[in-house]
UniProtKB/TrEMBL annotation:
Residues 12-87 form the Replication protein A 70 kDa DNA-binding subunit B/D first OB fold domain. Coiled coil: none annotated. InterPro entries: NA-bd_OB-fold, RFA1B/D_OB_1st. This is Replication protein A 70 kDa DNA-binding subunit B/D first OB fold domain-containing protein.
Length: 249
């Protein structure tokens, strides 16, 4: 098997990897039509990679991509990102692309020490450097403070939407405002209801930085269904050493 870290965007169609499905989602267009399917996989070495399945192959492959499942993917190509790609889930220069000769086989054996997710958290005091770029999304991690109530509204297309905001802080007093939308907002709100002032750490993956004014920065979480975003949170009382350690990954 090949390691994700060793994959190269070269004329080769017989790559083969053993990976765990970290995230998967359908990408839709403005008319709600499904355009393709995206996924993020990780291998036992702690590498991660984004991949795409075109619509014509989703019937054959989509059911194999169950989050948490370990699978063997054989006979696929690796393509380079171009200058036209925008809002890539994380920093990388290539992605997997499945073809009609690709085969996917679930791994039934128990695979120990195989990570479910891999993150590369950006320190909150460095987020300002990502304001002007639209190529990559980032992962962020911090303490949750100043949670606002859920807000709901009807957009100009007559679709109900919801969001809520809170501050994400670090032990060096850096902070950003986080805005969660729709499905992720609802899920997060259900988790925090009734928790009171209990301390919490949240890790958000594939976030977009939006600069609102000179002295204020905000991180807006992109739509779960279109960019493979995700979140994890810890309810145990957090500590600064744990936070600093997590920011390394």
């Amino acid at each position: 098997m090949d390691s994700l870290a060793n994959l190269r965007a070269i004329p080769k169609h017989d790559w083969k990897v053993r990976v765990r499905v970290s995230r998967c989602w359908r990408r839709t267009m403005g008319d709600a039509q499904v355009s393709d399917m995206g996924f993020v996989v990780v291998d036992e070495n702690g590498s991660r990679m984004l991949g795409w399945i075109r619509t014509s192959l989703m019937f054959w492959f989509e059911h194999e991509f169950v989050e948490g499942r370990v699978i063997d993917i054989v006979n696929f190509v690796v393509r380079p990102y171009t200058e036209f790609h925008r809002n890539i889930c994380f920093v990388d220069d290539k992605y997997m692309f499945l073809t009609s000769i690709t085969t996917i086989t679930p791994v039934e054996a128990i695979v120990p020490n195989f990570p479910m997710h891999v993150f590369g958290c950006t320190p909150l005091n460095n987020i300002r450097y990502y304001n002007m770029q639209e190529t990559y999304l980032i992962d962020v991690l911090g303490f949750v403070q100043n949670v606002e109530a859920m807000r709901r509204f009807i957009n100009k297309n007559g679709v109900e939407q919801c969001f809520h905001k809170f501050d994400l802080t670090s032990d060096d007093a850096s902070f950003v405002t986080v805005k969660l939308w729709n499905t992720l907002a609802t899920s997060f709100w259900e988790m925090i209801e009734g928790r009171g002032e209990q301390a919490m750490i949240v890790l958000l993956s594939s976030c977009k930085v939006i600069f609102h004014e000179v002295s204020h920065m905000a991180v807006s979480h992109v739509a779960v269904a279109s960019r493979g975003s995700g979140a994890t949170w810890q309810w145990d009382p957090p500590n600064s050493a744990w936070l600093r350690q997590r920011q390394k990954y």
